[in-house]
Amino acid sequence: RRTVFRRALRIVTLCTLATAAFALVPNRDEEGNFLLGVVDNQWRFWALFLVSVIGLGLFWLLLRRGRKAPQRFAGLLLAGVVGFSFFYGSVHISIAKYGQWQHDLEYPQRTWGEVSELNALLPDDGFYRLDAYECYNNMGIWLDRSCINCFHSTVAPHILEFYPTVGVTRDVNSKPELDLYALRGLLSVRYTIVPKEEVDSFEESAMSCWKLTDTTEHYALYENEAFVPMGFTYEYYITEEEFGAIPEDDRANILMKAMLLTEEQIAAAPAALQPLPEDTLDARSYEDYLDDCAARRTNAVTTFTATRTGFTAEADLEEENLVFFSVPYDDGFSATVNGEEAEIWKVDNGLMAVLAPAGYSEIVFTYRTPGFAPACAVTAAAWGVYAVYAVALWRRRRLTAR
């Protein structure tokens, strides 16, 4: 056992010391200047390296002490792990978090501290999404409202498919640049929350459709006058080949004109959807976008309501067509149209649509976590097996005691 510990310690020590190469190899920056190492911050790297070496030294001391008092080794090891965890945590917070002190200083007041004031200004006259410009993360969650930075409290897998195709990086959250203005129309963004110190920057970059409506202690609230309600239809579709040839920054503009369909979907598409004309494909100006917003508003559903289990909508169509919803596609969704089960189409690289007939339609989307019901059944069965085992064990002990 002693040999195994020593061998493991040697291997870990060798691997730890080898990481020093990251800070010592010759390198050059983008301008060709000589640099030492490939790490972003030398002192931070060496501080963490030193902590690792201290941890190795501590374990070596515990091994030596454990040989002299084997009966105390477990207690010494536990004390070492707890103490070193506290030490490492302190170093990590000092290096990684204290630098954010000024940035996070007003976090409580600018998030939950201002929720009631912001919600008092935001109307409850229908569903819409928010955008948060240069704000702390998760403003939509604090306000309990849908936000394009985080659609909900989890990351839907297909939003990772959709966002990169329209020029948006998806990491901890999504922060589309202001020049992707058409994305706000596609995703039904009605208000943008802007910190007061960022108002000049926002107004310099934002399009003319954003108008200041109100302010709070720390924020300015802008309304999108080109707002498009959730749920609408199109007259045109675009193929994947055509869509792929468009620059990423212009793709949201095209998605305001036409629905992106696969070849298989095009074959099954209703007659109301026609190929996007070439001259329309090239119309990507801001004025064209405003015209597209007006067209989508004209073809919007009459009502849209978010529910605890999904959402419902009512549509009154002149002819059979696909009704588009900018909700991330998920296998857990099911849909009915006028009470009958309907197929959910995955369109626009990760969003949803459903086929509705001419005239009035009631559309209901319901979400159930995939695998949740079988998991509950397995859990219940496991508890049953455990109960039988516990009773059998109890009876066996009683018989043994007699």
UniProtKB/TrEMBL annotation:
InterPro entries given in the database record: Uncharacterised_YfhO
**Source domain of life:** Bacteria
Q: Mind telling me which residue stretches traverse the membrane in this protein?
A: 7-25, 45-63, 75-95, 372-394
Q: Does the keyword Secreted apply?
A: no
Q: What are the protein's UniProt keywords?
A: Membrane, Transmembrane, Transmembrane helix
According to UniProt, the name of this protein is YfhO family protein
Q: Which organism is it from?
A: Candidatus Gemmiger avicola
